[in-house]
Amino acid sequence: MPSKTIVFDSSELQEKSHGLRFDLPHLGEHATGFVIRFDGKPHAYVNQCAHMPVELDWNEGEFFTREKDFIICATHGACYVPDTGHCAFGPCKGKQLQVLKVTEESDQVFIHLD
């Protein structure tokens, strides 16, 4: 079976700004993922808190804390390190988001779902 790749233009992904959401049908009918840019690099994760199976974003694509230093779960306040997905504090401390492989080249961001 061929691998699936999701592609975005690099210009769509701004530093510490809105994340880009995408569907992950292989994980379930309503499963989504997201990609953010932090410290100049794209990072992609399954959009599900490590504490409970709820999506993280406040409003669609809003994943960062007000200070733009952590990804935050809108439901329970768990805070994740943006470049690793590890929970720094909150109800799931020590756990982490499910990482998706992401690369960037030729002004495009590729999320690899294989």
SSE blueprint:
Blueprint: E1 5-9, E2 20-23, E3 32-38, E4 41-46, E5 71-72, E6 79-80, E7 87-89, E8 99-105, E9 108-112
Antiparallel strand pairs: 1-9, 2-3, 3-4, 4-8, 5-6, 6-7, 8-9
What brief labels describe this structure?
globular, 0% helix, six-stranded antiparallel beta sheet, mainly beta, 9 strands, three-stranded antiparallel beta sheet, 114 residues
State the gist of this model.
With 114 residues, the chain is an all-beta fold. It has strands at residues 5-9, 20-23, 32-38, 41-46, 71-72, 79-80, 87-89, 99-105, 108-112.
For the report, how would you describe the main beta sheet?
Answer: 6 strands, antiparallel
SSE order: EEEEEEEEE
* Helix segment tally: 0
Helix percentage? under 10%
How does the helix and strand content classify structurally? mainly beta
Mean pLDDT: 94
Q: Please indicate the percent range of residues in DSSP E strands (runs of 2 or more).
A: 35-45%
Uncertain stretches of 5 or more adjacent residues: none
Rough shape? globular
Describe the structure.
The protein contains no helices and 9 strands. It is mostly beta strands. It has a 6-stranded antiparallel β-sheet, with no helix packed on it.
